[in-house]
Amino acid sequence: MTARLSSTVALVTGASSGIGEATARSLAAEGAAVAVLGRRRERLEQLADKIRADGGTALVVEADITDQRQAAAAVGTVVARLGRLDTVVNNAGFMGVGQFADSPIEEWERMIGVNVQGLLHITHAALPHLLRAAEDPPRRVADLVNISSTAGRVARPGTAVYNLTKFGVNGFTEALRQEVMHKRVRVSVVEPGTVDTELGTHLRDGVRQAVERQIEGMELLRPEDIADAVSYIVTRDRRVAVNEVLVRAGEQT
Ligand code: NDP
């Protein structure tokens, strides 16, 4: 354990599976006390047990971030229980795929609710605490990392609303970065390619099989590959700001 984040506190949204789970473990391995947020308490408890078994500190925070009050209360709980907030990873997300004309409205609403509004709710509640942490030892810098996607840079047929949300995340990240950079809060975006997680399991029947055919035989990224990118960003010296990291699978166009 290198413990470059010891005496700091991190919050990872969507930590009950996939990229968020791997990121929470990676930040805990760097010495951060980690608050793991999601709706599936049991999965979060299992993760917290693993982090504690490895010698780390973990706090389970059950919340639906599409609800502004739950998101704000979750951030409040983290600060009340762990004392501060130095690092936030806005990772929770949902992807619906398929021709726009055939997409159910509930699917758009869920993508916008989690990927956009949820991210804004957490960011708004967390920012005052990040600004405070950025003034304080031990690091005198704080980090907000938004998990976007290659879909935040490249639009393709079949992902129109997902593209809308992730292009939005990229634009928001860059604007906020410029707003707070002089206060030593670093705002970064990570754009993963295709990662082997549960994200695709939520796709509608028919669409899911088509996506599975597209990636058949391809060696996908693992959640740890993205966790590595996040850890790299947040462990840099305060004079360095890694604004954007795009990580594709080796064979991905
Ligand atoms: P998973 O489906 O494994 O994880 C999604 C996480 O988001 C879960 O932990 C889920 O927790 C959480 N979540 C969903 N809705 C809510 C909500 N309303 N409130 C709180 N938490 C919520 O997928 P990934 O790990 O792949 O996805 C993580 C991020 O990475 C997403 O933003 C996704 O868009 C992005 N991404 C993923 C790629 C991939 O190929 N897998 C590629 C590019 C980007 P719970 O159900 O417990 O609430």
Automatic annotation (TrEMBL):
Keyword Oxidoreductase (UniProt): yes
Single GO molecular function: oxidoreductase activity, acting on the CH-OH group of donors, NAD or NADP as acceptor
Domain Ketoreductase: 8-196
Signal peptide: none
Family: Belongs to the short-chain dehydrogenases/reductases (SDR) family.
Keywords linked to the UniProt accession: Oxidoreductase
One cellular-component annotation, GO: membrane
Protein name: Oxidoreductase
Database matches in InterPro entries: KR_dom, NAD(P)-bd_dom_sf, SDR_fam
KW Oxidoreductase (keyword) present: yes
